[in-house]
Structures are given as C-alpha cells and as structure tokens.
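During the no-cost extension, the postdoctoral fellow (Dr. R.K.) reprocessed legacy sequence entries with the updated structure-token encoder. One reprocessed record is reproduced below for audit purposes.
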Amino acid sequence: MRILVISDTHQQHDNLTLLLDGDSRFDLCIHLGDSETGEEEMAKLLPCPVVMVAGNNDFFGSMPLEKVIILEGYSIFLCHGHFHRVYLGTKWLKLEAKKRNCQVAMYGHTHIPYLEETKDLTILCPGSLSYPRQEDRLPSYLVMEIDEQGKVNYQQCYLQ
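Re-encoded structure tokens follow.
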C-alpha cells in the first residue's frame, strides 16, 4: 500500500498537480488539514481515495478535527496539530497517540517536515506543499509505504 501524506495546501494546488504529474501511483491520500477546500474538491484532484482532517483554517465542511484510521494493521492518529501545541514540540501529540493506542501519529500546522521513528511510535509531519517554512523552503510531502509483509517505510520528499 502506497500512501501520499500532505498538509497545509491552503487552496494552492499547483504543486499537488506537479507532484501527481510525476507520480500518481497512490492507493490513498491523507490530508492533515488546512486544505481550505472540502473533501469533494480534494477528491477531484487526487487519483485515489482521500482521508482528511480539518485544520485551523478549514472553516467550512464537516471534516473531523481528529481521526484514527487503521491501515494494514497500523493504528494511525490524524490531526492538524494546533490543539496539540505542535509548535512547541510533539510531547502532547505523543501522549494523545499513546492514549489512543496508535503506532503512528501524523500532523500538519507547522509547515515544517518532521519524522521521528521509535520502537513504539512514529511521529510525522509532511510539511507543506504550498507554504513551506523550513530553512530551504522546498515544498514537501511524505510517502508512506506498507509492503506485503506489513513493514512500513517512510520517505520525506521535496519538490525541486
């Protein structure tokens, strides 16, 4: 299973289109908030099903603020992160993910890519395709792959 993980697109879809023009082999897309469009609009842009949570700029629509999904046996906590104070670190996000018995926690909001893998929990943020804030300011996303044996691999990716 190949999953595209994106966040903070803020109605700017040029980089998403560019990404998909180069690689559209995804089984699922996870959008971690601040799309500023609804699920129906994002579904039109993507070649696969999409799972979304609402961010602090998603004022319209019925997307949940948080969600737990199960993919190939992995329990994954999805949120935008603003209610878990991710600008101050991942401490509160980790506590929430563990409370929900999740092996993976995904967030957005900071626009800065982040990946921390430990034995019990993986925390990740794909950054932003539209308004990156890390030092090099490259638009970013993440690809999560789960192979046939159930082993997961994460690849942080950047548009050049």
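The beta strands are 2-6, 28-31, 50-52, 66-71, 74-79, 104-106, 114-117, 122-125, 140-146, 152-158. The mean pLDDT is 96. The remaining legacy entries will be reprocessed before the final report is submitted.
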